[in-house]
């Protein structure tokens, strides 16, 4: 008889489509913990620029993996910045899997990497804030309403960022969006405590994912240097600034999420947890 901590639970995970993303790792971890999965992303397909990832089929692959672990899974396309799409995803989840017990919001975008405020571009600002801030509000609202309706409490984790706390020159748009998301999460924890819905913020430092794929692709075109080479150089530089001497792995973030959504973490609600390889120390 399996004695899994999340057996019988349903987890709704946004930003789940990229092969090396935090969302994908969270999905696999929670499925191994026993949860059925609603895998949400802006599109079914999400290409990865890493060599060897050419066969990756985004949400379709995610569903196959979860099913091979013996759990149920559905894939839903929804842009988090569109409340109607998010709400429709929640309705589909309830229709097909009966309820939502856990939300992990991983959807997010990086936006421009080296853009000083004196040159900031309004379109970039709206693009990033729409996804990272409005998206976080939308997903929280739609899922929390469903959890309240169910009446059995719940667990919500937002993947925010160390960028919410630490200023980085050239990254004002992303960092400000994450700071806004962090404050929203703290208030959400206070508002949902009476419903026994526990809310957490997880702040990763630098994690080796597909997050900067678009940036490396653009740089590669501009410089005529292969994407892989640029990524290696950049990650080596970043790793040298991290006390642990390496970037984090998405599985390490997923491990923390697995603990937070388990019954073990209940009295931690409202906690903001940094996972940075020592940067924040
Ligand atoms: P990723 O690019 O690998 O994954 C992001 C996922 O979000 C993708 O599946 C993408 O399709 C989805 N997505 C993007 N825009 C969306 C939208 N509008 N609607 C729905 N889905 C959308 O990146 P990741 O590193 O796994 O990032 C996950 C989260 O972690 C993000 O919120 C990011 O800000 C945060 N984070 C990442 C790092 C890092 O170093 N990778 C560090 C700190 C925080």
Give an overview of the whole structure:
With 281 residues, the chain is of the alpha/beta class. It has one domain: NAD(P)-binding Rossmann-like Domain (Rossmann fold, 3-Layer(aba) Sandwich), CATH 3.40.50.720. 43% of the residues lie in helices and 14% in strands. It is built from 8 helices and 7 strands, in the order E-H-E-H-E-H-E-H-E-H-E-H-H-H-E. A 7-stranded parallel β-sheet has the order 3-2-1-4-5-6-7, sandwiched between helices. Helix 1 (22-32) packs across helix 8, helix 3 (83-97) runs parallel beside helix 4 (122-150) and helix 4 (122-150) packs parallel to helix 5 (172-192). The chain is globular and about 55 Å long. The chain starts with 9 loop residues before the first strand and ends in a 6-residue tail after the last strand. The model has no long low-confidence stretch (mean pLDDT 96). It binds nicotinamide-adenine-dinucleotide. The site of nicotinamide-adenine-dinucleotide (NAD) has 28 residues, from helix 1 and helix 4.
């Amino acid at each position: 008889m399996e004695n899994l901590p999340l057996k019988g639970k349903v987890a709704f995970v946004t930003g789940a489509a990229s092969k090396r993303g935090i969302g994908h790792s969270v999905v696999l971890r929670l499925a191994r913990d026993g949860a059925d999965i609603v895998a949400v992303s802006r599109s079914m397909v999400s290409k990865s620029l890493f060599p060897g990832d050419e066969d990756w089929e985004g949400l379709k692959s995610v569903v196959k993996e979860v099913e091979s672990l013996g759990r149920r899974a559905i894939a839903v396309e929804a842009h988090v910045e569109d409340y109607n799409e998010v709400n429709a995803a929640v309705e589909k989840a309830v229709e097909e899997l009966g309820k939502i017990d856990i939300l992990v919001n991983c959807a997010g975008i990086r936006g421009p990497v080296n853009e000083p405020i004196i040159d900031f571009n309004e379109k970039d600002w709206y693009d990033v804030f729409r996804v990272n801030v409005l998206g976080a509000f939308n997903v929280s609202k739609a899922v929390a309403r469903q959890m309240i309706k169910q009446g059995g409490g719940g667990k919500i984790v937002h993947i925010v960022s160390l960028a919410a706390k630490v200023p980085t020159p050239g990254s004002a748009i992303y960092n400000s969006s994450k700071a806004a998301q962090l404050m929203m999460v703290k208030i959400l924890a206070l508002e949902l405590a009476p419903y026994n819905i526990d809310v957490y913020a997880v702040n990763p430092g630098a994690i080796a994912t597909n997050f900067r794929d678009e940036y490396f692709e653009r740089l590669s075109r501009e410089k005529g240097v292969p994407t892989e080479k640029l990524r290696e150089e950049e990650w080596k530089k970043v790793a040298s600034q991290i006390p642990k001497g390496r970037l984090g792995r998405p599985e390490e973030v997923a491990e923390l999420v697995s603990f937070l959504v388990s019954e073990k973490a209940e009295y931690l609600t409202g906690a903001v947890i940094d996972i940075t390889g020592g940067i924040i120390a």
